[in-house]
Amino acid sequence: MELDLATLAGLFGRSFSLWWAIVPGIALGLAVGILPGFSPQNTLIILLPVTLAMDVEAALAFMIALYCANHLSGSIPAILVNIPGSAGAAATCIDGYQMTKNGQAQQALVVSFVASVAGGLITSLAVLALLPFLARLGLVLRSVEMVVIILFGLTLIAVLAAKDMLKGLIGGAFGLMLGAIGTDQVFSTPRATFGFLELYDGLPLVPVLIGLFAISEALVMIEERVTGNAAPRAPQRPQWLETVDGLRMAARHWWQIVWTGFIGLVIGVIPGAGAYIASFVAYQQSRLFSRTPHLYGTGHPPGVIAPESANNGVTSGTLVPTMAIGVPGGSTSAVMMIVLQYQGIVLGPRLFLEQPSIAYGVFVMMTVAYLFMVALILPLARYAAKVVTVPVHTIVPLIIALTVVGAFADREYLFDMALALVFGVIGYVAVRTDYHVTSILIGVLLGPIFERYLLRSLRIGQGDILVLFSSPIANVLWCLLVVSVVLPIWRERRLARTAT
Amino acid sequence: MTAPMLTRRTLAAGLAAMPVAARAQGAFPERNFRVVIPTGQGGGAERLARSFDDGWSKLLGRQFEYEFYPGAAGQVGYELYVARREPDAYNLLFGNMGPEMIMYALQRPRFRFPDDITYFCRIDIDDSCVFVRQDSPFRRIEDVVAEAKRRTLNVATSRIPHPASIGILALGEATGSRFNLIPYAGGNPTMVAVMSGETDIGVLPVAGITAQTGRLRVLGIFSRENVLAAKTDNAPTINAVFGTRIPDLYSSRSWAIHTRAIERHPDRFRKLEETARKVFEDRAFLEAAEKAGQPLESIRFGDRAVCTEYALGMIELANRFRAQLSAQR
Amino acid sequence: MAGERRRRPAGAELIIPTLAVGFTAYYFWTVQELAWEAKANGIVIGAILLVLVALLGLRIGLRVARGEASLGLTLGGDPQANRLRLALLALTVAFIAALPLLGTVIALALMLAAGMWLLGARHWPTLLGVSLVTPLLVWAGLIVAIGTRFPLGPFERGMAALLGLAGAE
């Protein structure tokens, strides 16, 4: 699986010539990413008749551009109105929306776009260089390792709960319980579904996301309308200055972009691990290694960079197992695989020898798609930021109407609209009584996959719980997990001691 | 965000693929078909259905639109299809009869077979097999059984309620060996688990394994003959090796329709039946299926009667192994 | 979140825990006859949840005993804003109920117009503009171009017949 420079240059040339497929892909990906409820895989499925009819390289370029752009734009509503466009952007809300409230909407957008594009660019180049190694990584990280990786994400519940630990943990545990709705992981028997067929497959993520974040936030916003106590949202400076400011913020944290991008890349390589795990783990790790952890949650740029760079790192990683072993790393790459197979392309290691233009080409196309996106960052930030100036009496009905529509779009059940509304009320009560909605969401998102990998590991251990400590990689991860739980406590103690 | 705005030649291709507006009124079919697939997107069912509709849509003059409702081993898709899709012969289901009839037997869903739903066009017979990774110490199926008599072997499977899982349990019962099933929720992750060495062996329908030759090796087939002998290194049938009498355990994908739609619109159903049968003579279908990784030897048409008999047999088998397959205690 | 927060009676803090405990009890009830693997995860987390809620109950109980909090059940917020919230929620329920009858475009237009009016939008051009243009964009972008199967109504059927679009059965 070696690649020489001349071939690589040829691949880049070929990818650039596919601009006519990449640009519409980016445009559609951005649009779909902004709307919660419209996932890249659903969009690609709907467009299958079109992509199947296209030439295979053009179809791939189109799909990859759509996929990557989708991960870029999920942060726009997260930052501007506290509504993640996709689950991968949920962690972006924590600091991104705070920046908007601090009057730094445009800076936050620029930071998130730079992190997304740079994270994606760096990791897609890294894949080109490290492909043989990464292909093996997917086979080394097994169920036991996944249990620990998901635990990293779950410790974020405790991190978010810093203000009131007890309530934070209750929120997280409530989320985890809700995440246990649906069929069990071993026998596929439904549990706690209230008799609803719509819940057999577990609590659907999109309506929960929409309810907890979008609808609850819209209900909170009404207060501003009535009390006239508008948040400081209007930009105070000429806009180009803010753009430059955002670029400066991103540049100052370039190292952050690199390493959180790699967290995303590694998690993306593991089949079945989604962008949201990566963004939560990256946020948690970024806070852990920060010299100023207390700034996280108050509108701190690295809190935006970490999840955004990581979720774009996932886009690069998820295609590795698809191309190298012929097993899709996620649902979006599963759809891409259908197109490839339909064109008679056999995925797997031999592809790199027989059709390098496709095997490596995929990652070159991804790099090129990110290069195209660079040009979009600044104008997009500038115009998107205007959303914050829309008056409450217009934006609140728009948010509720469009997100309820989005709740329907994912699975096409009216039930999901009602579910979004129920979670909107739960989310509103939670916000009002200081239960972190993000903690509940983390539970709902990570609960089912945690259960899946844990039970699988226990079954593999044939009842021996020590199986969880049976692999060297997992043991290293366990140690890191302990460090990341103990370190902040120790640091806090030391700070408290120096303060007195 | 207009989807088919993909410039140049794709514009024409895209438009051609878009549903054609009302043509001749009155003749069935007047519009596109909607198909419920009770498993996830990107799986074997979708690939096979799409290859089949390459040929079928030509004969019917309409396109097929797919919806995916995985969950609860197929229960979600089936219940939704029976309860919420109009029985008008425009709504079809494309299912995997084996595992899904096991689900029917174990989970007692809210529909009745064959009163509510009828399979009418079997597309393939995909025998269950035992497989290992290429460099596994197990060279023959006998090695597996010998080792499983010493210690319990971990077996990766797509789901516990699945013909392949029943096969390995039956083998254990017949030979006194012990197998521990680990469900991976799908064929792809099951193969990865075996490749990575997370489990000792795996059981799956054999067709998907033949696409991974060089990485995975088939050791034995749960069937009376190995039709894919050439592609599986002449793997023996398990009954031949051990002298057991395990029934043929294959998955079998089939088109299904509301039984009420057959009663209400017998003419439409006849058209579907006749055209579906003709697809098997279409080279385009066979080529598309082969490209999608479906060995041609496994493609075998079966009519309504064949499907019903197979499905009822599967229900009976599932009831026999209920204790190991179900969470109900 | 936004705005000043009044001193709130502690009873409201128990709404989420009560929901959580209620759901946990229901969960336990549905899994009682299942194999351990099908319920272990939920039972362990549920047990932790119950302990946490008991601790919270203790904490609030102590505060009430010391006279620092009451068990009142208000979420705070301005009374007028609360009325608007309830009205908006009722409107959304009506929207979901009306959707299968009126179709997406008409229901969405009515919902937006009513919602904006409710929240005090009185500038007619904006009000009409937003509540007409948005549904049309949803129709053109999501229903016609992408083909999402939103509930269809008189508008969608009429347009489909008029323009000869497929998919309006």
Strand count, sense and closure of the main sheet of chain C?
A: none
Q: Number of folding domains of chain B? A: 2
- Topology order of chain C in helix (H) and strand (E) letters: HHHHHH
- Runs of chain B in which pLDDT lies below 50 for 5 or more consecutive residues are 1-25
**Would you count the extended β strands of chain C for me?**
0
What do we call the CATH homologous superfamily of the largest domain in chain B? Bordetella uptake gene, domain 1
Amount of helix of chain B: 40-55%
Structure at a glance:
Chain A is mainly alpha-helical. Chain A has 23 helices and no strands. The termini of chain A are far apart.
Structure commentary:
The complex is a heterotrimer of chains A (500), B (329) and C (169). With 500 residues, chain A is mainly alpha-helical. Chain A has helices at 5-16, 19-34, 40-46, 48-53, 56-73, 75-81, 90-101, 105-140, 143-160, 165-179, 205-227, 239-252, 254-269, 275-288, 301-324, 331-342, 350-354, 356-359, 361-384, 392-411, 414-432, 437-460, 472-499. In chain A, α13 (254-269) packs parallel to α15 and α14 (275-288) crosses α15. The relative contact order of chain A is 0.18. Chain B is globular, with a radius of gyration of 21 Å. Chain B contains 14 helices and twelve strands. Chain B is of the alpha/beta class. Chain B has a six-stranded mixed beta sheet, with helices on both faces. In chain B, strands 5, 6, 7, 8, 9 and 10 form a six-stranded mixed beta sheet that branches. Chain C folds into two domains: 10-65; 79-163, no CATH class. Chains A and C meet through α10, α11, α20, α21 and α22 of A and α1, α2, α3, α4 and α5 of C.
